[in-house]
TrEMBL record:
Record key words, sorted: DNA-binding, Transcription, Transcription regulation
InterPro entries xref list: Homeodomain-like_sf, HTH_TetR, Rv0078-like_C
The protein's name: TetR/AcrR family transcriptional regulator
Pfam families in the cross-refs: TetR_C_41 (PF21351), TetR_N (PF00440)
Location of the HTH tetR-type domain: 10-70
DNA-binding region: 33-52
Amino acid sequence: MAGTRKEKMAETRSRLLQAARKAFGTVGYTDASMDDFTAAVGLTRGALYHHFGDKQGLLRAVVEQIDTEMAERLSQISRRAPTRWQGLVDEWTAYIEMALEPEIQRIMFRDGPAVLGDVSQWASTDNCVTTLKKSLDDLKADGLLIELDTEAAARLINGAASHAATWIAASADPQATSMRAVSSFRQLLNRLREGDIQPTRTK
């Protein structure tokens, strides 16, 4: 009986997430009616409040779900690269380019920050920074990076990528903005490679 109840609760939560994700991704957070998307899957506001607290809590859960999916996709991109450095570049430029995908653009880079606050303060950001720092540490140990503070670099790269993605999402021409952002971002990353930067001359 306990197992059946637990499974039913998990199913209800999944249905709410699916319905909310569809609504948030199409009409947006503000215009998404809780009554409409709960009724669409045969549930009530009470079920939503029970599982997520409120509409904002539901958005947070949707953001976490999408963020997990994005992380897996990016990990696969990194693993396919011929070198660790190329994997890092490909992974982070792909993150920026994901801002062109309608659902991700609206939920992750428009409504998410507007409702849940600064992306740099999200729990997932710390995980990204930690993972990126480890990658930079490994590359630095192999002599492939210039001398730098890897934690500071990880936070700056993460911030630049997030800002680029929100810039694309808010742009009147996302495709053109994405091309500009990715091109400049690649140039910035490549300047971190050992041998790619000339020492600054002092007079």
